[in-house]
Structure formats: C-alpha cells, structure tokens
TrEMBL record:
Entry annotated with the keyword Membrane: yes
Organism lineage string: Bacteria, Pseudomonadati, Pseudomonadota, Alphaproteobacteria, Rhodobacterales
Keyword Amino-acid biosynthesis included in the entry's annotation: no
Top-level taxon: Bacteria
Sequence ranges assigned to domain DUF5658 in this UniProt record: 12-78
Designated name of the protein: DUF5658 domain-containing protein
Keywords, in A-Z order: Membrane, Transmembrane, Transmembrane helix
Any Pfam family hit: DUF5658
Transmembrane segments: 6-26, 47-64, 70-89
Family annotation (InterPro entries): DUF5658
Length: 96
C-alpha cells in the first residue's frame, strides 16, 4: 500500500469515527460543544454530509499541494475529537 493510500485511509477513518461518535453522543443526550458545528447542525439535518464534504475538499486540496503531513495532522486531531466524544459518552452513560 502506498503512503498516500494509507494517509487517506487514516484520514477518512478519523472522519467517520468523529461523525459516528458525535451522532452517538447527541443521541445519548450530550450537545455539540463546537459553536460552528452546533450552528451548522441547526441549519441542516445533514450536518454530517457537510462535514464530510469539507473534510474531503480539504484533503484533496492538501494532496494537490503535496502537503500530506497536514492531512495526517488533521487525521490525528479529528481522531482525538472522536476519542473525546467516546469518552464523554461513556462517562454520561455511567452517570445514569
């Protein structure tokens, strides 16, 4: 597997994990902490599609510019957000 394929696989996995854990957290009674995403969620029921679209556009632009290391940084940040979402959801479930 080439480096670029691996980078994109990690990046997309992080995006999916973020959306999945955000959706689970919202169903579990938590709220979106990011004011920009909260506003987007209020404007459209398909916030996750917009998020994927923006992430895809950013990844394509960074690939085109030859900045794959920035894609990995975004993947790490997004993966961290997904882990935090999961941690908060688990904490909320234990509290109940």
């Amino acid at each position: 597997m080439s480096d670029l394929v691996f980078i994109w696989a990690v990046y997309l996995l992080a995006q999916f994990a973020d959306v999945a854990t955000t959706r689970a957290a919202l169903r579990g009674g938590l709220v979106e902490a990011n004011p920009l995403m909260a506003r987007l969620m209020g404007l459209t029921g398909n916030w996750w599609a917009v998020k994927f679209g923006v992430a895809l556009a950013a990844g394509i632009l960074l690939t085109w510019l030859g900045q794959e290391r920035w894609i990995m940084l975004l993947a790490a940040i997004t993966g961290g957000v997904a882990v935090n979402n999961w941690r908060l959801l688990r904490k909320e479930r234990e509290r109940r």
